[in-house]
Description:
This protein is α+β, with helices and mostly antiparallel strands. It is built from 6 helices and 10 strands; from the N terminus they run αααββββββββββααα.
Amino acid sequence: MLVLKRLFAFLVTASVTVLTGGTAALAATGQPEPWQIGLQRAATPVMDDIVWFHSFLLWVIGIIALFVLGLLIIVMVRFNARANPVPSRTTHNTLIEVAWTVVPVLILVTIAVPSFRLLFLELNIPKADVLVTATGKQWFWSYSYPRQKIEFDSLVVAEKDLKPGQPRLLTVDNELVVPVNKVVEVDTTGADVIHSFAVPSFGVKIDAIPGRLNKTWFKAERVGTYYGQCSELCGREHDQMPIAVRVVSEKDYQAWLTMAKKKFAADDGAARPAQAAAEPAAGDAVKVAKAGAVE
Ligand SMILES: [Cu+2]
Protein backbone atom coordinates (compact mmCIF):
# COMPACT_ATOMS: atom_id res chain seq x y z
CA MET A 1 0.00 0.00 0.00
CA LEU A 2 2.88 2.33 0.77
CA VAL A 3 4.11 1.96 -2.80
CA LEU A 4 0.68 2.83 -4.15
CA LYS A 5 0.42 5.80 -1.82
CA ARG A 6 3.79 7.05 -3.02
CA LEU A 7 2.83 6.47 -6.64
CA PHE A 8 -0.36 8.44 -6.12
CA ALA A 9 1.53 11.27 -4.42
CA PHE A 10 4.00 11.35 -7.30
CA LEU A 11 1.23 11.49 -9.90
CA VAL A 12 -0.51 14.32 -8.09
CA THR A 13 2.74 16.27 -7.68
CA ALA A 14 3.66 15.72 -11.32
CA SER A 15 0.25 16.87 -12.58
CA VAL A 16 0.30 19.93 -10.33
CA THR A 17 3.82 20.79 -11.52
CA VAL A 18 2.83 20.51 -15.15
CA LEU A 19 -0.40 22.42 -14.73
CA THR A 20 0.80 25.22 -12.45
CA GLY A 21 4.52 25.30 -11.74
CA GLY A 22 5.08 24.34 -15.35
CA THR A 23 3.35 27.43 -16.62
CA ALA A 24 5.47 29.65 -14.35
CA ALA A 25 8.60 28.18 -15.94
CA LEU A 26 7.18 29.06 -19.35
CA ALA A 27 7.21 32.78 -18.68
CA ALA A 28 10.18 33.08 -20.98
CA THR A 29 10.66 34.81 -24.27
CA GLY A 30 10.09 32.78 -27.37
CA GLN A 31 12.82 30.20 -26.82
CA PRO A 32 13.37 27.04 -24.81
CA GLU A 33 14.41 27.44 -21.17
CA PRO A 34 16.66 25.23 -19.05
CA TRP A 35 14.47 22.81 -17.08
CA GLN A 36 11.42 23.92 -18.98
CA ILE A 37 8.37 21.72 -18.50
CA GLY A 38 5.54 22.00 -20.95
CA LEU A 39 5.10 24.43 -23.80
CA GLN A 40 6.71 27.78 -24.48
CA ARG A 41 4.73 30.80 -23.38
CA ALA A 42 2.09 31.71 -25.95
CA ALA A 43 2.51 34.88 -28.00
CA THR A 44 -0.49 34.47 -30.30
CA PRO A 45 -4.21 33.72 -29.83
CA VAL A 46 -3.76 30.37 -31.61
CA MET A 47 -1.03 29.33 -29.20
CA ASP A 48 -3.17 30.48 -26.26
CA ASP A 49 -5.81 28.03 -27.44
CA ILE A 50 -3.26 25.26 -28.01
CA VAL A 51 -1.94 25.69 -24.46
CA TRP A 52 -5.48 25.67 -23.10
CA PHE A 53 -6.36 22.54 -25.07
CA HIS A 54 -3.16 20.85 -23.93
CA SER A 55 -3.93 21.53 -20.25
CA PHE A 56 -7.57 20.52 -20.73
CA LEU A 57 -6.52 17.18 -22.26
CA LEU A 58 -4.02 16.64 -19.47
CA TRP A 59 -6.84 16.91 -16.93
CA VAL A 60 -9.07 14.57 -18.94
CA ILE A 61 -6.28 12.02 -19.33
CA GLY A 62 -5.23 12.38 -15.67
CA ILE A 63 -8.74 11.86 -14.32
CA ILE A 64 -9.30 8.81 -16.57
CA ALA A 65 -5.95 7.30 -15.56
CA LEU A 66 -6.67 7.83 -11.85
CA PHE A 67 -10.18 6.39 -12.24
CA VAL A 68 -8.85 3.25 -13.95
CA LEU A 69 -6.08 2.96 -11.36
CA GLY A 70 -8.72 3.18 -8.61
CA LEU A 71 -10.80 0.44 -10.22
CA LEU A 72 -7.76 -1.81 -10.55
CA ILE A 73 -6.87 -1.28 -6.90
CA ILE A 74 -10.44 -2.11 -5.83
CA VAL A 75 -10.38 -5.28 -7.93
CA MET A 76 -6.99 -6.33 -6.53
CA VAL A 77 -7.95 -5.70 -2.90
CA ARG A 78 -11.57 -6.85 -2.77
CA PHE A 79 -11.72 -9.58 -5.37
CA ASN A 80 -8.48 -11.48 -5.01
CA ALA A 81 -8.74 -15.24 -4.35
CA ARG A 82 -8.10 -14.86 -0.62
CA ALA A 83 -10.58 -12.06 0.08
CA ASN A 84 -13.25 -13.40 -2.26
CA PRO A 85 -13.00 -17.22 -2.45
CA VAL A 86 -16.44 -17.72 -4.01
CA PRO A 87 -16.75 -15.39 -7.01
CA SER A 88 -20.08 -14.08 -8.23
CA ARG A 89 -21.40 -15.60 -11.50
CA THR A 90 -22.77 -12.28 -12.84
CA THR A 91 -22.19 -11.89 -16.59
CA HIS A 92 -24.40 -8.94 -17.58
CA ASN A 93 -25.39 -5.65 -16.11
CA THR A 94 -27.32 -3.52 -18.60
CA LEU A 95 -26.92 -0.25 -16.70
CA ILE A 96 -23.14 -0.58 -16.46
CA GLU A 97 -22.83 -1.67 -20.07
CA VAL A 98 -24.81 1.34 -21.31
CA ALA A 99 -22.79 3.61 -19.03
CA TRP A 100 -19.39 2.40 -20.20
CA THR A 101 -20.47 2.95 -23.80
CA VAL A 102 -22.13 6.33 -23.38
CA VAL A 103 -19.63 7.93 -21.01
CA PRO A 104 -16.59 7.46 -23.33
CA VAL A 105 -18.67 8.80 -26.24
CA LEU A 106 -19.50 11.90 -24.20
CA ILE A 107 -15.84 12.32 -23.26
CA LEU A 108 -14.81 12.09 -26.92
CA VAL A 109 -17.44 14.64 -27.96
CA THR A 110 -16.25 16.96 -25.18
CA ILE A 111 -12.72 16.68 -26.61
CA ALA A 112 -13.81 16.93 -30.25
CA VAL A 113 -15.63 20.27 -29.90
CA PRO A 114 -12.64 22.41 -28.78
CA SER A 115 -10.36 20.31 -30.98
CA PHE A 116 -12.26 21.16 -34.18
CA ARG A 117 -12.67 24.78 -33.10
CA LEU A 118 -8.88 25.00 -32.74
CA LEU A 119 -8.33 23.31 -36.08
CA PHE A 120 -10.57 25.83 -37.84
CA LEU A 121 -8.87 28.73 -36.06
CA GLU A 122 -5.51 27.48 -37.33
CA LEU A 123 -6.64 26.76 -40.88
CA ASN A 124 -8.96 29.69 -41.60
CA ILE A 125 -6.47 32.40 -42.42
CA PRO A 126 -7.87 35.86 -41.64
CA LYS A 127 -7.29 38.76 -44.02
CA ALA A 128 -3.55 39.29 -43.91
CA ASP A 129 -2.02 42.66 -42.97
CA VAL A 130 1.44 41.40 -43.84
CA LEU A 131 2.30 38.71 -46.34
CA VAL A 132 5.63 36.90 -46.15
CA THR A 133 6.91 33.82 -47.86
CA ALA A 134 9.34 31.44 -46.19
CA THR A 135 11.32 29.16 -48.48
CA GLY A 136 13.21 26.31 -46.88
CA LYS A 137 16.55 25.60 -48.49
CA GLN A 138 19.43 23.27 -47.62
CA TRP A 139 20.21 24.69 -45.08
CA PHE A 140 18.77 28.12 -44.41
CA TRP A 141 15.56 30.07 -44.87
CA SER A 142 14.82 32.68 -47.50
CA TYR A 143 12.13 35.20 -46.69
CA SER A 144 10.36 37.53 -49.00
CA TYR A 145 7.76 40.26 -48.64
CA PRO A 146 6.16 40.12 -52.09
CA ARG A 147 4.08 43.29 -51.56
CA GLN A 148 7.18 45.29 -50.61
CA LYS A 149 9.52 43.51 -53.02
CA ILE A 150 11.95 42.54 -50.28
CA GLU A 151 13.83 39.28 -50.34
CA PHE A 152 16.68 38.01 -48.19
CA ASP A 153 18.33 34.92 -46.75
CA SER A 154 18.42 34.14 -43.07
CA LEU A 155 21.44 32.15 -41.94
CA VAL A 156 22.42 30.79 -38.58
CA VAL A 157 25.11 32.70 -36.68
CA ALA A 158 28.06 30.44 -35.85
CA GLU A 159 28.67 29.78 -32.16
CA LYS A 160 31.97 31.68 -32.11
CA ASP A 161 30.29 34.82 -33.50
CA LEU A 162 27.45 34.98 -30.96
CA LYS A 163 27.09 38.14 -28.89
CA PRO A 164 26.27 37.81 -25.17
CA GLY A 165 22.66 36.77 -24.66
CA GLN A 166 22.18 35.42 -28.15
CA PRO A 167 20.94 31.84 -28.05
CA ARG A 168 23.10 29.18 -29.69
CA LEU A 169 21.76 27.57 -32.89
CA LEU A 170 18.77 29.92 -32.83
CA THR A 171 20.34 33.27 -33.67
CA VAL A 172 20.32 34.29 -37.33
CA ASP A 173 21.92 37.11 -39.30
CA ASN A 174 18.68 38.44 -40.80
CA GLU A 175 15.54 37.97 -38.74
CA LEU A 176 12.04 37.91 -40.11
CA VAL A 177 10.58 41.23 -38.91
CA VAL A 178 6.84 41.68 -38.44
CA PRO A 179 4.60 44.25 -36.73
CA VAL A 180 2.89 43.47 -33.42
CA ASN A 181 -0.87 42.78 -33.33
CA LYS A 182 -1.12 42.35 -37.08
CA VAL A 183 -2.18 39.25 -38.97
CA VAL A 184 0.86 37.83 -40.72
CA GLU A 185 0.27 35.25 -43.41
CA VAL A 186 3.22 32.94 -44.02
CA ASP A 187 3.34 31.09 -47.32
CA THR A 188 5.88 28.31 -47.16
CA THR A 189 7.52 26.21 -49.79
CA GLY A 190 10.67 24.13 -50.15
CA ALA A 191 13.33 24.74 -52.74
CA ASP A 192 14.98 21.34 -52.55
CA VAL A 193 13.61 18.92 -49.98
CA ILE A 194 10.83 19.07 -47.42
CA HIS A 195 11.51 21.50 -44.55
CA SER A 196 9.11 22.68 -41.87
CA PHE A 197 8.50 26.20 -40.65
CA ALA A 198 7.87 26.05 -36.91
CA VAL A 199 7.71 28.71 -34.20
CA PRO A 200 6.50 27.15 -30.93
CA SER A 201 5.30 30.29 -29.15
CA PHE A 202 3.20 31.23 -32.20
CA GLY A 203 1.63 27.76 -32.42
CA VAL A 204 2.89 27.53 -35.98
CA LYS A 205 4.29 24.42 -37.64
CA ILE A 206 3.82 23.79 -41.31
CA ASP A 207 5.73 21.72 -43.85
CA ALA A 208 7.57 23.60 -46.58
CA ILE A 209 7.24 21.26 -49.54
CA PRO A 210 8.86 21.68 -52.99
CA GLY A 211 6.24 22.42 -55.62
CA ARG A 212 3.56 23.27 -53.09
CA LEU A 213 2.47 26.40 -51.27
CA ASN A 214 1.42 25.78 -47.68
CA LYS A 215 -0.13 28.68 -45.84
CA THR A 216 -0.32 29.49 -42.17
CA TRP A 217 -0.73 32.62 -40.10
CA PHE A 218 -0.02 34.22 -36.75
CA LYS A 219 -0.82 37.40 -34.89
CA ALA A 220 1.91 38.10 -32.36
CA GLU A 221 0.57 40.02 -29.38
CA ARG A 222 3.85 40.91 -27.71
CA VAL A 223 6.96 42.63 -28.95
CA GLY A 224 10.08 40.44 -28.78
CA THR A 225 12.13 37.87 -30.62
CA TYR A 226 10.67 34.43 -31.07
CA TYR A 227 12.65 31.44 -32.18
CA GLY A 228 11.86 28.24 -33.97
CA GLN A 229 13.66 25.61 -35.98
CA CYS A 230 13.18 23.69 -39.16
CA SER A 231 11.12 20.75 -37.95
CA GLU A 232 11.52 18.30 -40.77
CA LEU A 233 14.69 16.22 -41.02
CA CYS A 234 16.08 17.77 -44.17
CA GLY A 235 19.70 16.71 -44.39
CA ARG A 236 23.12 17.15 -42.90
CA GLU A 237 22.67 20.67 -41.54
CA HIS A 238 19.05 20.36 -40.52
CA ASP A 239 20.04 21.78 -37.12
CA GLN A 240 21.62 24.84 -38.74
CA MET A 241 18.47 26.47 -40.06
CA PRO A 242 16.73 28.22 -37.18
CA ILE A 243 13.86 30.65 -37.55
CA ALA A 244 14.00 33.96 -35.73
CA VAL A 245 11.01 36.30 -35.85
CA ARG A 246 11.41 39.80 -34.44
CA VAL A 247 8.05 41.30 -33.52
CA VAL A 248 8.25 45.11 -33.40
CA SER A 249 5.93 48.10 -33.07
CA GLU A 250 4.29 49.46 -36.23
CA LYS A 251 6.69 52.45 -36.20
CA ASP A 252 9.78 50.23 -35.93
CA TYR A 253 8.35 47.99 -38.64
CA GLN A 254 8.00 50.90 -41.05
CA ALA A 255 11.56 51.97 -40.23
CA TRP A 256 12.77 48.42 -40.85
CA LEU A 257 10.90 48.27 -44.17
CA THR A 258 12.62 51.46 -45.35
CA MET A 259 15.99 50.05 -44.34
CA ALA A 260 15.27 46.59 -45.77
CA LYS A 261 14.15 47.94 -49.15
CA LYS A 262 17.58 49.52 -49.53
CA LYS A 263 19.68 46.80 -47.95
CA PHE A 264 18.11 43.79 -49.58
CA ALA A 265 17.71 45.44 -52.94
CA ALA A 266 21.44 46.18 -52.94
CA ASP A 267 22.09 42.63 -51.72
CA ASP A 268 20.95 41.20 -55.03
CA GLY A 269 24.40 40.04 -56.11
CA ALA A 270 25.09 38.30 -52.83
CA ALA A 271 21.67 36.70 -52.76
CA ARG A 272 22.16 35.02 -56.11
CA PRO A 273 24.81 32.46 -55.13
CA ALA A 274 22.52 31.42 -52.31
CA GLN A 275 19.86 30.55 -54.85
CA ALA A 276 22.30 28.00 -56.26
CA ALA A 277 22.00 26.12 -53.01
CA ALA A 278 18.38 25.56 -53.90
CA GLU A 279 19.51 22.91 -56.30
CA PRO A 280 20.71 19.70 -54.68
CA ALA A 281 24.35 20.60 -54.35
CA ALA A 282 27.44 18.98 -52.92
CA GLY A 283 28.31 20.08 -49.39
CA ASP A 284 31.14 22.32 -50.50
CA ALA A 285 29.07 24.16 -53.04
CA VAL A 286 26.52 24.90 -50.33
CA LYS A 287 29.26 26.18 -48.05
CA VAL A 288 30.42 28.58 -50.75
CA ALA A 289 26.87 29.71 -51.36
CA LYS A 290 26.33 30.32 -47.66
CA ALA A 291 29.57 32.24 -47.34
CA GLY A 292 28.49 34.43 -50.24
CA ALA A 293 25.08 35.08 -48.74
CA VAL A 294 26.42 36.21 -45.35
CA GLU A 295 28.16 39.25 -46.78
CU1 LIG B 1 15.08 22.03 -43.08
